[in-house]
Amino acid sequence: MKTERQQEIIDVALKLINEKGIQGLTMKNLSKEIGISEPAIYRHFENKIEILLAILDVFRESTREIFEKELNSSITATEKIEHLFTRHFERFANNPSLVSVIFSEELFRGEPVLMEKIADVIDKNASILKQIIKQGQQSGEIRMDISVDHLAVTVMGSLRLFVKIWQFSGYRFDIREDGKRLLNSVKLLIQAN
Amino acid sequence: MKTERQQEIIDVALKLINEKGIQGLTMKNLSKEIGISEPAIYRHFENKIEILLAILDVFRESTREIFEKELNSSITATEKIEHLFTRHFERFANNPSLVSVIFSEELFRGEPVLMEKIADVIDKNASILKQIIKQGQQSGEIRMDISVDHLAVTVMGSLRLFVKIWQFSGYRFDIREDGKRLLNSVKLLIQAN
Amino acid sequence: MKTERQQEIIDVALKLINEKGIQGLTMKNLSKEIGISEPAIYRHFENKIEILLAILDVFRESTREIFEKELNSSITATEKIEHLFTRHFERFANNPSLVSVIFSEELFRGEPVLMEKIADVIDKNASILKQIIKQGQQSGEIRMDISVDHLAVTVMGSLRLFVKIWQFSGYRFDIREDGKRLLNSVKLLIQAN
Amino acid sequence: MKTERQQEIIDVALKLINEKGIQGLTMKNLSKEIGISEPAIYRHFENKIEILLAILDVFRESTREIFEKELNSSITATEKIEHLFTRHFERFANNPSLVSVIFSEELFRGEPVLMEKIADVIDKNASILKQIIKQGQQSGEIRMDISVDHLAVTVMGSLRLFVKIWQFSGYRFDIREDGKRLLNSVKLLIQAN
DNA sequence: GATGAATGAGAGTTCATTCAT
DNA sequence: GATGAATGAACTCTCATTCAT
To answer: Are the beta carbons of A161 and B160 closer than 8 angstroms?
Structure first.
């Protein structure tokens, strides 16, 4: 479980990462933003890496939830992917800072522990998406002339780039609305026939 | 244009970024790797930002070359995209360090000059890809039930994610060969009919 | 207002300036002299400029005190000037390092913030001296055949040069005693009739 | 004697000192301003100190000339002082950079060779001024109720402060014209009766 | 005379972290 | 839980100077 302070630290850390990038996440900035002293943070997290790990944990949890909920529901694969997209967009719209985490692989380099965790998150998500696609192919919804892997790369790649463009734009368009449109296009691309 | 030393510095800088991420690109590391003193670097580049700008320049130049060559050739749009992909894969295969640059947006945050240049590179490339796709739609090669923008996001997004996966794997598969396969899938996805 | 450490830093900085000139005031020298690490200083002052500003502040405050005390007392203008001189000499005798500050205009060039503050100090002092002289002319103590501005330049200029000579001599004569003699001469020079 | 290049280096050095203070006189700035490489300067001066010494030499020579010319002329002491002032003002008006040198004592600290030379210049000038004043007292032109030393401090101090004010103002008033007025005041101050 | 390339020493500053209180 | 004070390591960058050419 997480104490209030821990949650606060995670939130502010996310905010800082989002606003100034990873380089902007320093213990000084963090403590200043929270309004406590630097050493105080060490009461709640052993060190900076633990904070980053906690952030990744939060991200992983919320992502896995989305993915798994879809996987175990009884709707069609297409609907699952649709929900997947939609819920992600929803999540980012509510907390744009999360976007930074999704693209943080490059940033956490150098810390093996972090690298591992990130790889884990990505792997898990990818494998779930692939399962859904496979299911869609089996049910005849999704085209079979393209391998699961390639479809997954396409779907996930589109999602990622789209979100990145949104971030780059300064969140100036409505990711939910525009996302729904992109979603329709992706559905057209991967549907059978 | 560039002196030998400048080129060497750029190369080594790229290598360092690739190996240890941006945080690994310090003037000390750079000078140590090259085998000269830190101040010596300042004879060849005014400051660190200039080195990063030079890297982005190299990347932009070589990318633009690829893109523009395609744009002005008389082949079909599909072939153009095919070449585009192929050449990029080729380039990355020969110099894996370049991959880091393609995903460097997050890393260069904080330096407005760099941000601007990156945005510029991305913008230019995106607009060229869109032109090719539009041409493909007009010639009937590429499906018209999906907007140019969405097709571009899909194509570019797939490429990016694929390259990232390759990097993440530690360059353990042949990006040229596997890339050609992904390429075929993408072609299937976007082709008319 | 100021913590003990801050005061210590200011004192040691002044001492360093006095001993080796501005070029001798480095963060390294400062920390070494105090007996703490370089970064430790940054806990007490944001940067070097803030230290210099604090020094100027100390100087300004103590000077302004002297000047204003005189201005509002009910003694004659001549006596005021006398006190002014005397107190300055007293101050320098107790803390010769302060002399360096009085002549620091040239040294702080390049830092606009510092330049401004110095100009401010000088301006304020000059205007107070002029007020006193004007008062002395109105009361008939001070000669009227010479303008206030010129008398101020003469009085202040003599004081400054005298102090500089004292500094240059390595503080080898008693500035209080010799200063009193110079003071008598200046009084003769500016008195009416 | 001095080569053309040496003279050029001295001139540019003076200009730099004047514009940005001593801290602005770096070998890099110097070479950039002249339009040659840094090592090239070392062809003409052994090191930076030699350049500063040369500057002081120039200053000393031109000052001594002024002083000595006056000393050996057959005019009155008052006229001599008048000429002294006037010629100095003339000199500064033509080359404001020289002002920086006159107040450079503080800046050259740390280099014993330079300190010594500066002390020498100041001493020589002071002793000449005192000679003139003494002569004026003997001839009855200058008041005798004040010691030569004190009169010298007053005269020289006024001159110095006035020039400094001119410099501080950004050379915004005519030092020759305003200087002449100050001169008249000083004459009034020191004249007998 | 001049240059390009290089250097050791040192500048100010920031970082994550620790310790006594 | 929290703080003020401190630190070692590392950062980018500048300095006067040298050396081979």
So the answer is: yes
